[in-house]
Amino acid sequence: MRDVLDTLERWIGEGREIVAATVIRTERSAPRDPGAVLAVSETGAVAGSVTGGCVEPAVYEEAQEVLAGGPPRLVSYGIADEEAFDVGLPCGGTVHIFVDRLESSVVQQLSEAVRVESPIALTFPIVGPRIGGGTLITPDTPNGEAADAAKQLLARGETAVVELGGSEIFVSSFAPRPRMYVFGAIDFASTVASIGKFLGYHVTVCDARAKFVTPERFPGIDELVAQWPDEFLADAPIDERTAICVLTHDDRFDVPILKVAVQTEAGYIGAMGSRRTTEKRLERLKDEGLSEKAIERIHAPIGLKIGARSPEEVAVTIAAQIIQVFRSGSPRTSPSTQAASTQAAG
Question: Would the pTM of this model clear 0.85, i.e. be above it?
Fold first, then answer.
């Protein structure tokens, strides 16, 4: 829903009634993950997507029925479903979608929380005697069975269905954006920072040289820091969703940064440099007392090996590797067989 909140807020400001169709569960292959929303206003306007288009005309009709006064409902579309055959779900999976009204107060509170990057979750029962409605949960919400389950998912930034007794509750988490730290204000850093923003990260670029860390060189980036990188990283907020990209390829910076990085919970740590530079750096890190286990966390040379050379191409390889690492389920380890990109910088 995050991607349509601005539109929903505008609709609310115009006094429109809104119905949200939310993907709550998928089976096998499906175009969108749980939490994806297609919203329909009383004027017939549409925002968002739940299946990339293949069943959305049918979902739109369900939303119109709810707007006309019908009850909330859980609908499913799959390859074995006759109705799905009519509307078409060519990916071969099944998608379960919950359709209900979305109250203006919920939209406003969600929008404000997302704007200030405060964790919040939207929950609603999808099975049981009282389905629909919407309850917002934050880390400060009083304890209770449903609230505690939602807070656990929210802490991990996960969206899922929770079974509680004879009911099922859908929890859509809106965690603050994960953080990406880019060290080294070089041309590669600009493209990596930009693609990090595109992937939804809160991006910080840090370099000890203030004249290189400027808005003109890094337009639209969340945070620019002129500070000795290892000192900055030692106090920076980091969790398992954090990506650290060391692009300085200079031992004066690389070694101190990486010594700090491997002591954090960061899910991804990558360092730029040619293979020769990487080998020398690894020896320096060993001399500094880092264990093999700690060194294995570092993806170096950074990025996937696809022959990339330009800053834009290298940024794509780094982004792809970050996605691969976090989607693999074991983000903190750099497999010895992990392919790495060709780096022009030495």
Answer: no
